[in-house]
Structure formats: structure tokens, C-alpha cells
Amino acid sequence: MYVLEHKFWISAAHYLPKMPPQHPCHEAHGHNWEITVKVSSPVLNSCDFVMDFSALKAICQLHVRDRFDHKFLNKVGIENPTCENMAKLIAEIIEKYLCLPQHVLTIGVMETQGNMCWYIPE
Predict the structure, then answer these.
(1) 20 to 30 A Cα–Cα from 82, which one of 21, 27, 103, 110?
(2) Adjacent-strand bridge partners of 10
(3) Within 10 A of 60 (CB to CB), how many other CB atoms are there?
(4) 57 with 39: CB under 8 angstroms?
(5) What's the domain range around 71?
(6) Which of 97, 110, 118, 121 is nearest to 12 (CA)?
């Protein structure tokens, strides 16, 4: 199995409406989110790539970064934008733009240094 990794960052605000009112995350606040995308394939293409890094970067830019960067996440279709929900949504978005046999292996979302969630699609 071959694995490609691409990292990018977004700055975005959110609040977590399911947290108790006294919890600090219940109020609006922002993060500089680090997103790690890992794409896998059991075989290489005719160029001996899983995929071109520039193609993966473009997918991440057009369909994730442009959608979420400098946005209020609760207002762009994510009701409860936890790291877990963000990671799953990003995996679903990126998967739509990959060509078989490429698949999203995992998505990591770090909202603060040392606090990261990994989502592994089934």
C-alpha cells in the first residue's frame, strides 16, 4: 500500500452548541486548524504516482480550504464543528474527487497544538 500525505492550514471560528453553557467552547472562538490528508492506493499510476501532489493540493484548496478558511464553521453547514465532525466531513469531501484505486486513508484535524483527531473511513 502506498500513502501520500498533504498538510494545510485553515483559520476559522466556531462554537460547540452541544457543550454545556458554562464550557468555554460553548462560546464563539477561533483556531488555526492543521489538516493532514493521507491518500492511499495499492498500485501506482502510469507515472508511478499514487497521484500527483499538485492534484491533491488542488482538491484540498478548492474543496476544503476555500470552503472553510476564515469562515464561521457553524454557518457553513457544520452544526457542531468538533474536530471529529470536521475530520469526517473533510474525508467525505476529498473522497468525492479521487479516482479509484485512490482512497482517503485518514484525515487528521488539529485545532490546538497537541490536540488532534484522526478519522479513518471504513
Answers:
(1) 103
(2) 33
(3) 21
(4) no
(5) 2-119
(6) 110
